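Customer escalation, tier 2.

The customer says the design service returned an amino acid string that "doesn't look like it belongs to this structure." They asked us to rerun it and document both sides in this ticket. The original C-alpha cells are below, unchanged.
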C-alpha cells in the first residue's frame, strides 16, 4: 500500500479543510471576554500603584477549582508553541493557513478571558500565577509526535474534546455562576475545534487508512494533556481527578470512545498488516483504560469512605 507523504496528505485533505472551515465559520459565535468579567469587583493590587496585597482569604473558590483554573489557564498560555507547531505542519497558505490563524485567534481569547476573571475576582495569587506562566512558557510545548501531520491531527481530535470537558467541569466546580458561564462559553469553542479536527482525520481514514490507524494508535498509547509540562502537574492532575473534574473514566468514556465511534474505527476497510496491528493495539488500549479507570474509582471511593469516617 502506498504511503502518502505529508505534502500529498495536505493536498488530499485541502478540499475537506475548506468545507470544514466554512462550516466552522458559519457555526462559531462572536463573543467578547470583557462581557464575562465582573469588573466592578476589581481592586488595585500592591506594588507600584499601592493597592492591597493578595491573601488566600480574597478567594471564594474551592481549592481544587482554583487548581483546575490555573492548569487550564497555563495550558492556554502556551499558545505560541501550539501555533508554531500547526503552522509548521499545515502551512500558512490557503484554507490550511486560514484555519491556523482563525484557531489561534479563538484560543488566544480563552486565555485573555480566564486571566481577566481570575485577576479581577482575586481568585488566585497573581504573583504566583505570573511566575508559573513564565516558567511554563519558557519551557514551551512539544507533543510526542509533533513532526507527524496525521499524529498531530489525531492528538488534537482527542485533546480538544478533553479540554472542553475539563473547562465545563471546572466551571461547575467553582460554584460561581459567572465563572461557569465563562468556561461554558470557552468549552463551546473547544467543541467546534474538536469537530474540525475529527472531521479531517475521518477524511484521512478514507485516503490513507493504515497510516491514519497507526497515528491514532500511537497517540492513544502515550496521550498526555498539553498542560503536562506545568510545574507540579502530577499532583495537580490527581487533585483534579479526585474531584471528578477530569479523570480516567471521563477520558475513556467521554473522550476516547466517542471519537473512535465517530470514525467507526473497527469497521475501517482497506488496512494493511500494520493498520490491522494498530487497530488491535487500540482495542487493547481501550481495555487497559477500563481497568485503570475502575481501579482509580475503587481507590477514590475508598478514600472518600475514610474521610467520611473521620468526620
Amino acid at each position: 500500500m502506498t504511503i502518502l507523504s505529508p505534502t500529498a496528505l495536505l493536498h488530499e485533505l485541502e478540499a475537506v479543510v475548506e468545507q470544514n472551515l466554512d462550516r466552522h465559520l458559519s457555526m462559531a459565535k462572536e463573543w467578547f471576554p470583557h462581557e464575562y468579567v465582573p469588573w466592578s469587583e476589581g481592586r488595585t493590587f500592591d506594588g507600584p500603584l499601592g493597592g492591597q496585597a493578595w491573601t488566600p482569604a480574597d478567594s471564594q473558590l474551592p481549592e481544587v477549582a482554583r487548581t483546575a483554573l490555573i492548569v487550564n489557564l497555563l495550558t492556554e498560555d502556551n499558545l505560541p508553541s501550539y501555533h508554531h507547531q500547526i503552522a509548521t505542519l499545515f502551512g500558512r497558505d490557503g484554507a490550511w493557513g486560514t484555519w491556523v490563524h482563525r484557531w489561534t485567534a479563538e484560543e488566544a481569547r480563552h486565555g485573555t478571558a480566564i486571566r481577566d476573571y481570575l485577576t479581577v475576582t482575586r481568585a488566585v495569587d497573581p504573583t504566583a500565577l505570573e511566575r508559573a506562566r513564565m516558567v511554563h512558557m519558557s519551557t514551551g510545548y512539544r507533543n510526542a509526535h509533533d513532526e507527524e501531520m496525521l499524529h498531530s491531527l489525531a492528538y488534537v481530535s482527542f485533546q480538544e474534546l478533553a479540554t472542553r470537558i475539563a473547562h465545563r467541569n471546572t466551571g461547575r466546580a467553582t460554584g460561581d455562576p459567572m465563572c461557569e458561564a465563562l468556561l461554558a462559553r470557552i468549552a463551546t469553542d473547544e467543541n467546534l475545534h474538536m469537530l474540525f479536527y475529527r472531521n479531517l482525520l475521518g477524511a484521512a481514514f478514507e485516503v490513507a487508512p493504515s497510516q491514519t490507524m497507526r497515528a491514532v494508535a500511537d497517540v492513544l498509547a502515550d496521550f498526555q494533556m498539553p498542560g503536562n509540562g506545568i510545574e507540579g502537574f502530577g499532583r495537580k492532575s490527581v487533585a483534579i481527578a479526585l474531584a471528578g473534574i477530569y479523570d480516567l473514566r471521563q477520558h475513556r468514556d467521554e473522550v476516547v470512545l466517542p471519537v473512535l465511534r465517530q470514525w467507526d474505527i473497527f469497521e475501517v476497510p482497506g488496512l494493511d498488516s500494520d493498520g490491522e496491528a494498530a487497530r488491535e493495539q487500540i482495542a487493547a488500549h481501550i481495555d487497559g483504560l477500563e481497568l485503570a479507570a475502575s481501579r482509580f474509582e475503587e481507590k477514590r471511593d475508598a478514600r472518600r469512605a475514610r474521610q467520611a469516617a473521620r468526620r
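Tier 2 assessment: The sequence is consistent with the input. Residues 38 and 120 are 7 Å apart (CA to CA). The chain has a mean pLDDT of 94. Sent an explanation to the customer and offered a walkthrough call.
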